[in-house]
Structures are given as C-alpha cells and as structure tokens.
Write a sequence for this structure.
C-alpha cells in the first residue's frame, strides 16, 4: 500500500458505482478511511467488498444528497467514526433528461440541477464547516467537460456543471485562509454504467463520442479516480480553485 492519503478520513458521494466506486477503491488503496454514501443500496455490498479488498476501512450510509438533513448526517458519520473530515469527493450526479431548451419541462430542469448542483452546495456547506474547525481539508467536486463547453440536447446537465465550476472557485477563494482547498475535476466521456445505459438507448451515441475524442476511446473510471487522489493529497497543497480536465484531449481538440 502506498500512502498518498494515509490516515485521512474521507467522504465520497455517489460511491456505489462508476467514478465514485473507482474513487473509493483508489482512496482505500492509498490508505484513506472512508464513509461512502449513495442511494443505490443494492450496489453497496459489492462496493464495500472491493474497498475492503483494497485495504480500506469503510462504512456505508444511505444518503440522498439533495436532502440537507441526510447530508449533514453523512458528514457527522465521518466525524463520529474518525474524529475528523480530511477530504471529500462530491461525485453524485445525473445526466438527466435531454432535449432542446425550448422543449424541456421545468421538472426535468429542476431535477437535474438539484442532483448535480444543489447537492454540491449542500455537501460543501457541511464539509467546509467540519474542515474549517481543524484548519485543513481538501474537497473535490466532480464536474464535467460539459462544464466548459456546450452540449446540445443536454442543457440542464451543461448548465449544472458550469455552475459547479463557479461554485468551486468561489468556495476555494473564500476558504483559502481557512486551510481548506476546493478543486473540481472535469471528466471526459467515461466508461461508467450511466454512460453505458445512455449508449444502449441510442446506438449512435458511442460513435459520436469516440469520434470527438482524440484518443479514440472512452476514459476509465479509475483514471478519473487518480486525479481525485492527487487533488486530495498533500502533493496538491498549492492547487486550489482548479478545474482539472481529465478527458483525453476532447476539449482541446
């Protein structure tokens, strides 16, 4: 076991599958102690087994990250078990329903922003309070390449991810003197169950995605997780307010 996160207490949201699951496993391998949260309880046992196989100490807490009392309880679970919250990865999210702006329902818009944006605000609100008491901590918010460019047909998703970057930068500046760093990761198209489900519904989607990626392949969840490990580690001690693209050059093309 290496030691980039040795002894650090971490909270990871959306940890049951995809990037969140890969991040939990990577954090465990690097020595972190974890509280993992999600609403996909049926996937929790498999995730916990993989995290423990990687050497991690971990508990699971069912948490709807759009509900503030549940978010507060998840942060308190970390504090109660480990006595501190050293790092957090706010990963829970959804692509939401697509469509042209003029055809979207208010319900679809509100749901996507609630899961992708309001949840990040709620998590940071309680994570920052816990971290500033100790004068240290690192938060990573999972944004997207869609936080930097237009995504026709997915305006609620793109808008929410653009907003996550603004929220990240603001929190980073506000808390720099508190000893807390706040950064974001902007993954490109990543091979996760969520993306696979979307590609299964529309066989053209995979071809479109691969054609727009210079390397001609999807990213892997563990490649995104490695960026989260770095940003939460002491090696990133002077990295704050960053929006880190991990997308195989898709936005740069």
């Amino acid at each position: 076991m290496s030691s980039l996160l040795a002894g650090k207490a971490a909270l990871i949201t959306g940890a049951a599958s995809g990037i969140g699951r890969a991040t939990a496993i990577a954090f465990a391998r690097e020595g972190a102690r974890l509280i993992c949260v999600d609403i996909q309880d049926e996937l929790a046992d498999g995730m916990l087994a993989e995290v423990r196989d990687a050497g991690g100490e971990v508990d699971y807490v069912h948490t709807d990250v759009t509900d503030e009392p549940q978010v507060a309880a998840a942060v308190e679970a970390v504090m109660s078990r480990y006595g501190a919250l050293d790092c957090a990865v706010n990963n829970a999210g959804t692509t939401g329903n697509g469509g042209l702006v003029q055809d979207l329902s208010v319900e679809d818009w509100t749901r996507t922003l609630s899961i992708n944006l309001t949840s990040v605000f709620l998590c940071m609100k309680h994570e920052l309070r816990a971290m500033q008491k100790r004068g240290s901590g690192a938060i990573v918010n999972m944004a997207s390449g869609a936080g930097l460019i237009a995504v026709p047909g997915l305006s609620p998703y793109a808008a929410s991810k653009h907003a996550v970057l603004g929220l990240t930068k603001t929190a980073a500046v506000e808390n720099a003197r508190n000893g807390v760093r706040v950064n974001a990761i902007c993954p490109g198209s990543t091979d996760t169950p969520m993306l696979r489900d979307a590609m299964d519904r529309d066989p053209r989607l995979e071809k479109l995605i691969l054609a727009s990626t210079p390397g001609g392949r999807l990213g892997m969840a563990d490649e995104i997780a490695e960026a989260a490990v770095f940003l939460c580690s002491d090696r990133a001690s002077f990295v704050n307010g960053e929006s880190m693209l991990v997308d195989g050059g898709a936005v740069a093309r």
About this structure: Residues 183 and 242 are 5 Å apart (CA to CA). The domain at 9-190+220-246 is CATH 3.40.50.720 (Rossmann fold). Helices lie at 18-29, 44-53, 68-82, 106-132, 155-175, 193-201, 204-211, 221-232. The chain has one domain: 9-190+220-246.
